């Protein structure tokens, strides 16, 4: 952070105003438009949602039902993430063992793979004979699509997918947090006589509370907004974000936008307090624990016992979670695509084979090529435009007093459910609003810019902080460089890693995005949306192939991220 | 009876040997310091005793009990860290009672102990403060109290004063020693500050590249270092290369490069052996008169540092030596270019056989 007393001369006012203007138009406006839309057309909303002449307040009851279901799903997924993610994050942060980086990559994988492809892999693995069921010698899938988990009443498959997709948020956030906590606090506790589990409860966890919270919030937001995989595995259940997609496609715009703005506001209400709390440096839990002495002593004894005898469990169980939720689905899909290559291995029908579905009458290969082209153009264009906005924006955030406010606002597009976002963009720029573009590739690009900007800004800031950039720039200035020169010759090269990482992350995110894209894409189908269409058309083999294609694509991207982040 | 005994303790990190067959016994009630350049393995050594690092080979005994397989929390040692490591989310009081609490001591006893500790470090008034509200010195005192509250008899100090200001550091080190002696503790103190080690220890251990080079009382290490590395690392020394030309009963003569002869106390080696002689700058003097052991040269540099003036003298053979003198205005001043004679009393000359690996490598810190 630069001192506020000195007026920074490095950004001309023109640049600042142009950047802020673009930021407002391209990012802020689409993010919050939905809420104002609901207010402006309240009468319409009231009639459709609460006082429908035919069905009364049925729509409102639907909204409540769907919201309640979504919350149950997201909360239980986050709870699961925390229980198993905390030990895994601890292992990744503190232990060194062969394969650590590989494990890290596997955990991160669901962030990179387009979720519809991943959802399909999970679907195949659990509910069809090609997956675990067939492997165990059954004639059906291990679990039926709509089988519920008792107590939380959430379909098993939906739960598994949401855990896999949110797990990385908890694990990676906490891993970074644990790494930033000096290991000597733990050692001190141990030398004072505390077992490793007692140390964890008393020292590490309270210090890592900000990390736990922000990881949980990210995971929760992600689960609440997840659309791609959910569309594929939801069966008869409806989550909030797919309800928006469905209602938008049924032109129940008022209901959809009311629901969307509810989601945005709920996301805000949960995230803002946490952001403010976590944003204060050096936060930790300062609650002096007072528990009954007998309980306290028994707990300590148990922890001592568990630290010695049960430590294997904490190593093995999280690994098993990662294995079953991430690795097995990918293996199953790769395996199935081979088995289904020329024909359905169970019925022997050629029509069930990958080749027939790709090149036969339905000619999915052609659709796939077109979708690839669309996806890549969208990803490149939205990432490029976002980049032009994100670089100056990152500098403004670091060097102006209102930077922190902008940064907090920037969290919103990252966490609001993307289907709300898509709806918002459609209503704002689409035919009903400014009529800038019809549903299609341009509208997709406009939508993707909204969440790409924060992604890139965050990675530039991550590279910025702790780089001592201000010092290098100052020294360039003392050597005679003009402010602009100093940024060009010193700062930007030093930030290269962050900018490139941001590029890749944004590109990946754009490539995999489904929820918003579904609403604004019109006839320009992207690859993840194509997977959903294939599954709905029951073109299983084609979906298998496309999922494999997506997985391979994201593995390449992941390797690229590794390469770029390692060099720093 | 906290006596610590290390037998052949060895720890490797890949190719680097951090501790190479360390044998060391710390007697009950002794205050021992370990010094050495960074990377010499001193921190590995103290961490092995605490159980933070597990040695690859060798045995560690505390009170005659083999502790190799004992986890950190069951060794019962007090450990003070360089970065203090007071738990930032707990008050001074909660920090101090942490040990008894996780050891499930009765609350009344814990309370009494904590009050006693706070009294000892004179911090009773601030027991509700968080560590970040205290000065560095006070924080470290709190950390010491925290380490000692559970009646640990062995105190391991891992560069305890390294994070503090120079003044505070100098004050606190005597307080540490007093505390250790008052409570009849055994202490092992790791530091890279040799002055700190020399001023408070009963015994100082010098380490280099994972091995113990030498151990002895501070005064012996300074005046009569057995090893040429110690002579260089502890304090300051001049080194001159030469050859033994004469060995008598109590005196030997070494001819240094350039032909000047120096009378030394005695040498182990025989006539013709290549040797290195060493002497402390403050034991040499600048003389005008002809006397024994004089080396002529001219002053090339004069440096004042507080109460001392350091003269750099280039000898006739081109070697340079440093002579330290107490600053005084009555004596004649020294100027660059003055022709002077350096005199070294025979008893203050240390003679070492010329090291096999060469002089530079023998003295190297890395």
Task: Tell me what the structure shows.
The complex is a heterodimer of chains A (568) and B (366). Chain A has 568 residues and is mostly helical. Helices cover 75% and strands 1% of the residues of chain A. Chain A contains 26 helices and two strands. Chain A has a two-stranded antiparallel ribbon with strand order 1-2. In chain A, a hairpin with a 4-residue loop joins strand 1 and strand 2. In chain A, helix 3 (58-94) packs across helix 10, helix 10 runs antiparallel to helix 13 (253-279) and helix 13 (253-279) packs across helix 19. By secondary structure, chain B is an alpha+beta fold. Chain B folds into two domains: 4-229, 3-Layer(aba) Sandwich (Rossmann fold), CATH 3.40.50; 236-363, OB fold (Dihydrolipoamide Acetyltransferase, E2P) (Beta Barrel), CATH 2.40.50. In chain B, strand 17 and strand 18 (320-326) form a beta hairpin. The radius of gyration of chain B is 25 Å and the shape is elongated. Chains A and B meet through helix 8, helix 9 and helix 14 of A and helix 2 and helix 4 of B.
Rg of chain B, Cα atoms, Å: 25 Å
Low-confidence region ranges of chain B? none
> What's the overall average pLDDT of chain A, rounded?
85
CATH architecture of chain A: Orthogonal Bundle
N-to-C SSE series of chain A?
HHHHHHEEHHHHHHHHHHHHHHHHHHHH
Question: Which stretches of chain A of 5+ consecutive residues score pLDDT under 50?
Answer: 1-8
How much helix is in the residues of chain B? 10-25%
What is the CATH T-level topology of the largest domain in chain B?
Rossmann fold
Number of domains of chain A: 1
The pLDDT mean of chain B sits at: 88
**Element order, helices and strands of chain B?**
EEEHEEEHHHEHEHEEHHEEEEEEEEEEH
What structural class do you assign from the helix and strand content of chain B? alpha+beta
Largest sheet strand order of chain A: 1-2
Roughly how much helix do the residues of chain A carry, as a percent range?
over 70%
- Biggest beta sheet summary of chain B: 6 strands, mixed
**CATH fold-type name of chain A:** MetI-like fold
Number of alpha- plus pi-helical segments of chain A? 26
- Provide the structure class of chain A: mainly alpha
Overall body shape of chain B: elongated
């Amino acid at each position: 952070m630069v001192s506020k007393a000195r007026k920074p001369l490095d950004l001309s006012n023109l640049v600042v105003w142009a950047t802020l203007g673009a930021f407002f138009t391209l990012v802020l406006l689409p993010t919050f438009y939905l809420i104002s839309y609901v207010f402006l057309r309240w009468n319409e909303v009231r009639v459709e949602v609460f006082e429908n002449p035919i069905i009364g307040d049925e729509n409102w009851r639907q909204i409540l039902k769907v919201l309640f279901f979504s919350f149950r799903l997201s909360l239980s997924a986050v709870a699961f993430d925390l229980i198993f993610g905390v030990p895994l994050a601890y292992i990744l942060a503190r232990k060194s063992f062969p394969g650590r980086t590989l494990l890290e990559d596997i955990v991160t994988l669901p962030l990179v793979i387009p979720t519809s492809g991943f959802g399909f892999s999970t679907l195949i693995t659990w509910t069809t004979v090609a997956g675990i069921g067939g492997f165990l010698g059954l004639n059906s899938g291990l679990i039926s699509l709509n089988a519920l988990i008792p107590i939380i009443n959430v379909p098993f498959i939906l739960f598994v997918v949401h855990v896999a997709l949110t797990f990385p948020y908890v694990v990676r956030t906490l891993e970074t947090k644990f790494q930033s906590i000096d290991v000597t606090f733990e050692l001190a506790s141990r030398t004072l006589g505390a077992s490793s589990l007692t140390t964890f409860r008393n020292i590490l966890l309270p210090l890592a509370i900000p990390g736990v919270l922000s990881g949980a919030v990210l995971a929760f937001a992600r689960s609440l907004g997840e659309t791609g995989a959910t569309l594929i595995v939801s069966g008869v259940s409806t989550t909030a974000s797919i309800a928006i997609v469905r209602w938008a496609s049924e032109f129940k715009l008022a209901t959809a936008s009311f629901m969307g703005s509810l989601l945005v506001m709920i996301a805000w209400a949960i995230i803002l307090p946490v952001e403010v709390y976590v944003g204060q440096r050096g936060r930790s839990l300062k609650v002096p624990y007072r528990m009954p002495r007998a309980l306290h002593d028994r707990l300590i004894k148990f922890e001592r016992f568990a630290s010695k005898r049960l430590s294997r469990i904490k190593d093995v169980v999280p690994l098993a979670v990662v294995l079953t939720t991430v690795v097995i689905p990918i293996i199953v899909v790769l395996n199935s695509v081979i088995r289904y290559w020329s024909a359905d291995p169970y019925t022997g029908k050629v029509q069930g084979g990958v080749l027939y579905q790709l090149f036969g009458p339905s000619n999915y290969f052609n659709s796939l090529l077109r979708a690839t082209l669309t996806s890549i153009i969208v990803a490149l264009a939205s990432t490029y435009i976002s980049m032009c906005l994100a670089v100056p924006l990152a500098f403004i955030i670091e060097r102006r007093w209102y930077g922190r406010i902008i940064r907090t606002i920037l969290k919103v597009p990252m966490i609001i459910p993307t289907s709300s976002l898509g709806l918002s963009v459609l209503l704002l720029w689409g035919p009903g609003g400014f009529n800038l573009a019809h549903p299609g590739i341009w509208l997709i690009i406009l939508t993707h810019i909204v969440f790409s900007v924060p992604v890139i800004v965050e990675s530039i800031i991550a590279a910025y902080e702790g780089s001592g950039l201000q010092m290098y720039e100052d020294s360039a200035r003392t050597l005679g460089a003009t402010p602009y020169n100093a940024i060009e010759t010193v700062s930007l090269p030093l930030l290269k890693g962050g900018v490139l990482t941001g590029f890749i992350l944004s590109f990946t995110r754009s490539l995999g995005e489904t929820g918003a894209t579904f609403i604004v894409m019109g006839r320009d189908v992207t690859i993840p949306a194509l997977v959903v269409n294939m599954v709905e058309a029951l073109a299983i083999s084609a979906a298998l192939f496309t999922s494999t294609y997506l997985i391979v694509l994201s593995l390449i991207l992941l390797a690229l991220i590794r390469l770029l982040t390692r060099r720093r | 009876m906290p006596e610590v005994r290390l037998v052949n303790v060895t720890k490797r990190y890949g190719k680097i040997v951090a501790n190479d067959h360390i044998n060391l016994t710390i007697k009950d009630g002794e205050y021992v310091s370990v010094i050495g350049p960074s990377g010499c393995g001193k921190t590995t050594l103290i961490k092995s005793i605490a159980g933070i690092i597990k040695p690859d080979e060798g045995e560690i005994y505390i009170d005659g009990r083999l502790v190799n397989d004992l986890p950190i929390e069951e060794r019962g040692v007090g450990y003070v860290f360089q970065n203090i490591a007071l738990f930032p989310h707990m008050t001074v009081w909660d920090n101090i009672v942490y040990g008894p609490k996780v050891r499930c001591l009765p609350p009344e006893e814990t309370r009494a102990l904590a009050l006693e500790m706070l009294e000892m470090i004179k911090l009773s008034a601030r027991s509700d403060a968080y560590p970040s509200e205290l000065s560095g010195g006070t924080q470290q005192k709190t950390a010491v109290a925290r380490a000692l509250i559970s009646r640990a008899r062995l105190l391991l100090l891992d560069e305890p004063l390294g994070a503090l200001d120079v003044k505070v550091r100098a004050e606190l080190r005597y307080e540490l020693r007093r505390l250790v002696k008052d409570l009849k503790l055994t202490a092992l103190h790791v530091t890279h500050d040799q002055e700190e080690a020399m001023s408070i220890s009963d015994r100082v251990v010098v380490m280099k590249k994972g091995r113990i080079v030498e151990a002895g009382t501070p005064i012996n290490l300074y005046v009569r270092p057995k090893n040429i590395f110690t002579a260089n690392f502890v304090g300051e020394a001049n080194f001159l290369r030469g050859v033994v030309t004469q060995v008598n009963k109590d005196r030997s003569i070494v001819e240094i490069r350039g032909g000047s002869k120096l009378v030394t106390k005695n040498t182990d080696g025989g006539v013709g052996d290549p040797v290195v002689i060493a002497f402390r700058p403050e034991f040499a003097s600048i003389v005008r008169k002809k006397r024994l052991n004089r080396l002529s040269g001219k002053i090339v540099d004069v440096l004042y540092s507080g109460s001392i003036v350091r003269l750099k003298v280039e000898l006739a053979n081109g070697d340079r030596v440093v002579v330290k003198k107490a600053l005084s205005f009555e004596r004649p001043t020294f100027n660059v270019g003055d022709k002077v004679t350096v005199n070294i009393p025979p008893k203050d000359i240390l003679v070492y056989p010329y090291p096999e690996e060469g002089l530079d490598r023998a003295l190297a810190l890395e």
